[in-house]
Amino acid sequence: MPEKKDFFNRNKETIPPEDLETLQLKKLRKAVLYAADRSRFYRRTKKLRKEDARFRTIDDFAKNIPFTTKDDLLNGGIRENLCVPENRVAEVHFSSGTNAKPVFTFLTKKDIDEGNAYLARTWHMQGIRRGETFAMFASYGLFSAGFINHYAIQKIGSFIIPAGNVSSAKALELIREFKPSSSAAVASYYLYLIAEWESAGLDFKKTELRHIIAGGEPFTEKQRRFIEKKLGGRVYDQYGLCEINTGLAGECSEKNGLHILADYVYPEIINPRTGAVLGDDMEGELVLTTFHKEASPLIRYRTGDITRITRKMCPCGRTMPRIARIRRRTMETLFFKGMKIEKKQVEDALFELRGEVNPHLWRMEIQSISGRDRIVCKIVPSKGNAKTLSRAAECLKKKLGLNVKSILLTKGEIARLKDSKLKHFGDNKKK
Ligand SMILES: [Zn+2]
Predict the structure, then answer these.
(1) Residues spanned by CATH 3.30.300.30 within the chain?
(2) What is the pLDDT averaged over residues 5-18?
(3) Which one of 3, 161, 331, 423 is least enclosed by Cβ atoms within 10 Å?
């Protein structure tokens, strides 16, 4: 267990709350001024002017500065929002997999370096230490989880195994060879590894894993206890989003909410329907403003994630506010291996076959077949079942970048979908 009073940066992590608010106000003004000055998107689409940065209080900021949405970014906002010359961009990171229309974010060298210094705090809080061995099972490639956090963990001085894109057999071999004391992956990956190891008849209690970080998708307390029992370490939740950064918030050893890097991003909770800012401990949609992003800054970005913020003192001694673990989103979503699948993406894919299937009558489920998870999409073809099923699978693969098995909806399921008693997404994997 990480020592309670062992901080990566004591002054920043235990900043008095009133000093944090003063700092946030200063950083918010700077962020709005920067966007109004440098971003065509914020100037033209959001009508931000430099004068708008002269708000006197955080309340004034919330009253006068508009929200940014994912749709804004998808409708051309990403490129319009590039605030540095293209030759200063060092990296680009995408939302997930190979969606037809991914959200991406540009980073300069300064964005990466500054991000590392902040994100390292989250990792250190979750038990990652200099000289220890860390296995990164989060995907590298375009997805931001692997790379960005790889740098942050190097910043701490850990020995890191970049195992983001290896088979489970290889992952197991690496764990036995290098005996990592900590690791990161999406929660379902640990469940998958455990199932693989069990079927290979191996004793994974012999691993040295003590700090097991799970992010990218919600998981239940039951799943947490299962992973802890099987692997013998402690599982900590982590939160982030690729439009900004992964590792923005994480659980400390108290596991009573995720300390958010509130001097790196400004968190607000709003009523998703009215947009009104809600007080502490009230549940609503998380909205984030970036303080330090020079290539792709975001002002009041609506994350779609439902949570609440608490500023009550944490026994660990950190004063950074905590967000509750994310359990649901404002829109219907399915999480699969760290990817978020949205209702609209499935409907877009099925809409291409609108003569053959009803694009609004479907259900997508994660099913667990002997320890392996797969995605199934149930549909209603109007004729020629077999051909339509394989064409639907093709369309879904193209849109989501995933292998999807398509099968028929049963009569009972159709009736329950029509009555809204059945949701479009379901997760039937082993809990
Ligand atoms: Zn704490």
Answers:
(1) 333-427
(2) 93
(3) 3
